[in-house]
Write a structure and sequence with these properties.
Blueprint: E1 2-3, E2 18-20, E3 26-28, H1 29-32, E4 37-42, H2 48-66, E5 69-75, H3 87-97, E6 103-105, H4 110-115, E7 119-120, E8 122-126, E9 132-134, H5 153-164, E10 176-178
Parallel strand pairs: 4-5, 5-6
Antiparallel strand pairs: 1-10, 2-3, 4-8, 7-10, 8-9
Helix pairs in contact: 2-5
Organism: Paracoccus aminovorans
Protein name: Peroxiredoxin
GO molecular function: antioxidant activity; oxidoreductase activity
Length: 183
Amino acid sequence: MAVRPPVCDFGAKMPDFTLPDPDGKPVRLADILGPRGTLVMFICNHCPYVQAVIDRIQRDAAELQSLGIGVVAISANDVQDYPQDAPEQMKAEALRHGFSFPYLYDESQQVARAYGAECTPDFFGYNADGELQYRGRLDASGRSPAAPDARRDLFEAMVQIAETGQGPRDQVPSMGCSIKWRA
């Protein structure tokens, strides 16, 4: 079932967290903050929406990191029902796609709830002051291959945030699979 999260709550403060990477090493939000902004992404391994854009996520993340944007991905799915989203599978996924950012596991789902994450992928773009400025889509492609000239909504928004501290006022929500909450 496709889910569309709400539009950006401009200025909302970035929730703090400490989460393990797939090897169990704790990573704090402070470890990944960028001097010009931070992108927090909720993704998972099994979602067809994520799989359709995962290489573009990595491409944009690497470019954003070179511009001083911190980037992190978090998986919060219930691994009892979705074992393909378990930490050992997350590690393999990160290696397969050459992630340049940490991919963390939110077993308690408390971080996903604190952010208000609803789907995978769900993108939260913050300025250098930790204020939410973007809650939109990666691009217009959805689950389809992107056209070569597809507008890079997330990338362009994060560049604008890095340069001005403000996100675009016109944003299209992301769309994806619902986060798989534990009962």
